[in-house]
Amino acid sequence: MMSSTFPYTMTEETFKGTATMQIMYQVLALLAFTISLAVCENKMKLPGQEKERCNYLRVGRKKLNVDCSFSYMSKIPVLQYNVTFLNLQFNSIEIISSGILGNLSQLSELDISYNKLSWIEPDAFAGLCSLKKLILQNNALKYNTVSFPLGIFKPLESLNYLNIKFNDPSNSENFPSSVLSDLTELTDLELDVFKSQDSMVFPEVYMSLERLQRLVVGNCTMNTMNNTFTYLPYLHYIDMSSCTISNYQKGTLNKKNLTYLSMPGKSWEHLTYDQNVIHDLNSTNLTILVMKHSTFSLESAFHYKYLIHSGLRELYINNNNLRKIINRGEPVEFCLPSTLEILDLSNNKLRQFCVNLRNVTVLSLRNNFLGPFLEQNLCIQNEASNLRRIDLSFNRIEHFSFSIFRQQINLKFINLSYNNILDISFDVSYINYSTILDLSSTNISFFEPTFMSNFSELMHSYGLKLNLSNNMFECKCKGILFLVWICNNSNHLVNSENYECKFEDGSVTELLQLRDIIFSLQINCMSFNLLAASLSIIILLAFAIQGARLVFKYRWRLLYMYYRKRRIFSNEQSVEKFKFNAFIAYSENDRDFVLNDCIQNLEGDGELKLCIHHRDFLPGEEITANITNAIHESRKTICIISKSFFQSYYCMFEYNMALTEGIYEREEQNVLILVFYEQIMPRDLPLVIQEQIRQRSYILYCNDGRGNVDFWKRVKEAIM
Predict the structure, then answer these.
(1) What 3-state class would DSSP assign to 508?
(2) Per DSSP, what are the bridge partners of residue 326?
(3) Could you tell me how far CA 687 lies from the centroid of its own chain?
(4) Over the stretch 47-74, which tens digit does the pLDDT of each residue have?
């Protein structure tokens, strides 16, 4: 028998370890296969990778528009034959290879601007027989036959628009004109222009471009215009605003076909330059003149008054340094052609504007400093203005003259946005039918009731529309009427669904549910108003009570001062300091005692003179006035105290007036003599009498023979 032996015995642990290793190997193998598959798939998709970054728009049944802008491309993708529009802006394309666009026979517009183009291969545009618009601006292309080989544009037999401006900033030579000679259908050309000492900027080769009508200059170092456009006789449109010209040869712009001119920037101190330019412009059919980003000033306007006989329809003098335009001969007269319809003076530094607009229909004064001037008037001299649109935005306007738009009966659009208008203060009654008034971004929080009423009438009668966007309204009690007005006139408010308002707590909300907001405010404000009214009533009542207390407390002093003033302004003033030695204050019940006893015993010897109201009061005078006069004109006041004295109003009046006279008029001297005619218990005395007898002496009347003598003696001593 043969025995079979194994090299080793597999234990349970060894079996488990081997199984684990096998699983790991399988996982690693699967992972490696997945990675290699992904790499292969990625390599397979690489040629068409750019397609996934582009947006496709089908036009009609067969045509296709493709937008591959901002796609991080370094090469032009291969596309279908039926593409008619291709946008490759803002990528990193450096070269246009030969044949890459060859199958795009239907392509009509190609935009490869804002890339890194530095070279175009000779047959790059082969097959583009339908291309009409080619844009290559803002790249790194040099103006030579290396970047633009001869014959490069020959396949572009339909091209009518070419834009190659703002390319390699190191360029110093003008574009090779021989390269352009093949573009016989070209109508629009945009390119950079550089100073040339030996040759013309636009040489004779340009004569072959018989259809070229529009020229726009990008980068420009040319500073002289000397027969510059001789070989461009068919130009209608010239934009040289990026050039800085200091020398101009008469006749350079003498072109009958010229209708649009954007003037080059310059220092407008060269008056010969201005004269020559104006001379040439008057011989053209110019309808649009643009003078942007120059140092144009009012002094140079002197020469432009000769344009009054031109056929200009649009004049743009924006982004300059104009500070004042006053058509009053100081310092120059600024005249406008009768054909002018659009005048743009925006982005200047205008502080005054007064000119005859003649037939101007659109006036832009945007972004100036006309706010203070407009507080007086908007000076448009012609009585019947044809003005239909005016832009006064960004002018630091706060207030208006009431007559600012009075003569502008044809206005259809008034832009006052982006000013600091806190309230409307101008006359809107002259606004015509269907006018739009733009008051957006003007810090308006609400309208006064008068203006809401005026605006409502104009809205319903004349169709006025208001734009109040970007103003923060007030969701407060004082703004409820304005919010109700917005709700009732929402059909006449532009973009009213975007209006916002701020609550007392600072929170902001859109006026989408305006009726609910108004209702909530009315409820809250009603409670607040009730609370405010209640508090006001309580405060007023408290003041009234306190005032009444003070009046009551000082009533006798007030009465005394009143009658004292009357006495001072009266014509009846006594020459003597005191007319009487004593004034007798008594009740009617004690009249016999006064008439029979007092007069006999006190006046009998002729030493004393008494004032008795039955005898000495002035007839026709008020009783209270007679009383105060008698007290003031008497050295003393004798009060005959009895129970009936306290019950008499005039007796107590006489007592208090005498007391006040002593305190405030006679430096707290005692002018009162209290004579108790009856025996009265202290508890029956008024408090003012009790206080007086505690501080002062008084005299008791005694009705016996001896007592009477002593009594009258004491009274006389008190009077003297």
Answers:
(1) strand
(2) 354
(3) 70
(4) 444 445 899 999 988 899 999 999 999 9
Long-range contacts of 570-578 (CB under 8 A, 24+ apart): 572/618, 574/633, 578/633, 578/634, 578/635
Question: To which residue do tokens 């920037």 refer?
Answer: 265
CA distance 319 to 346: 7
DSSP string, 692-711: HHHHS--EE---SHHHHHHH
> Which phi and psi (to 5°) does residue 259 adopt?
-120, -20
Residue 13 belongs to what H/E stretch? helix 12-45
Interior angle at CA 290, CA 287 and CA 294, nearest 5: 155
Q: Where are the domains positioned within the chain?
A: 46-217, 577-719
> Which residue bears the tokens 């001969």?
329
Return the HEC string of 133-183. EEECCCCCCCCCCCCCCCCCCCCCCCCCEEECCCCCCCCCCCCCHHHHCCC
Catalogue the E-assigned strands of 586-698: 610-611, 634-641, 672-676
Q: Dump the DSSP string for 423-480.
A: S--S--TT--TT-EEE-TTS------HHHHHHHHHHHHHH--EEE-TT-EEE-SGGGH
Residue with tokens 């699983």: 23
Please write the tens of the pLDDT for every residue from 275-320: 777 778 888 889 999 988 765 555 555 456 667 778 899 999 888 8
pTM: predicted TM-score of the whole model, two decimal places: 0.66
The Cα–Cα gap between 583 and 632 comes to 9
**Bridge pairing between strands 224-225 and 379-380:** unpaired
CA distance 17 to 28: 17
Q: Give the CATH class of 46-217.
A: alpha beta
Q: Do residues 131 and 156 make contact, with C-beta atoms less than 8 angstroms apart? A: yes
DSSP state of 228: T
- Structure token pair of residue 549: 């207390």
- pLDDT band (50, 70, 90) for residue 573: very low
Burial string for 590-621 (b: 16+ CB within 10 Å, else e) reads beebbeebbeebbeeeeebebbbbeebbeeee
Topology of 577-719 in CATH? Rossmann fold (3.40.50)
Distances from the Cα of 702 to the Cα of 230, 444, 587, 709, angstroms: 142, 89, 19, 9
DSSP 376: T
In angstroms, rounded to a whole number, what is the distance separating the alpha carbons of residues 173 and 221? 10
Compute, in degrees rounded to 10, the torsion defined by CA atoms 456, 461, 462, 466: 20
